[in-house]
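Question (not urgent): is this output format expected?
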Amino acid sequence: MNNLHGAGVALVTPFNNDGSIDFEGLSRLIEYQIDGGMDYLVSMGTTGEVATLTKEEKKQILDFTADKVAGRVPLVAGFGGNNTAELVAQIKEFNNPAYQAILSVSPYYNKPTQEGIYQHYKAIAQATELPIILYNVPGRTGSMVSVDTIIRLANDFPNIIGVKEASANFEHFTRIMARKPEGFLLISGDDALTLPMMSLGAVGVITVVGNAFPKQTQQLVKFCNEWHYEEARKLHYDLLQIDDLCFIEGNPAGVKEMLKELNICGNYVRLPLVEVSDETKKKIALAVREIDGKVIA
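Got this back:
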């Protein structure tokens, strides 16, 4: 799965002010990512506000994205949920050949045991021949996918090919790297930790910040992959304020405000999310102008 090395972006879903999907904004966003050098795109990840989208809307976005990309970069489809049977049915129905893999967040709210998480992903793995990337984000799901469970899944199912890690736990990352089978991918799920995770052996990032700053994010990952860590550290520190502002009032409200500043799409989100505060908008405007004006090495 070398085409999933590097910088992938979890695309936001642009909305119009009436709450409908802004397909023109999505088209601009996709072109912006490809022009910025992003290595692959993730459609309908959790950053796409999938919890607020209908089944039909998700299909429309997946199909639109595939048509717009037209094979220029690899595509990953997000399929996650806490109703395993329903999720398996959705994956079995999914037949868009433009997508190379599935990203699936661990079940949220239910707080399953490790055996429950294992059986959930087993059912997904057996429902499709597509490669699957696990997604561990305990701050949002309320439960941690343990190292033992990740390694068990990686060994038991050949189409479980990696994990997007957003646990912010470096002991956890290190033990995954020490025990994983050859070829299993560790992918950063936290922009602020991409550099240190790649120093441990992660192959890249599935980024939020990259929606607004694809060139900088892709270059940071490229520097790390080429062992140019002095240059990577400079970009890392340049992007720290942007990282903070992206998440200070929730994702994707922060990055959507950045995209509005960059004239890519609007800052509209669907309830229960709301736009960032006026104070944060001012900080974002200043930070975007500062970062956008810097020359990429």
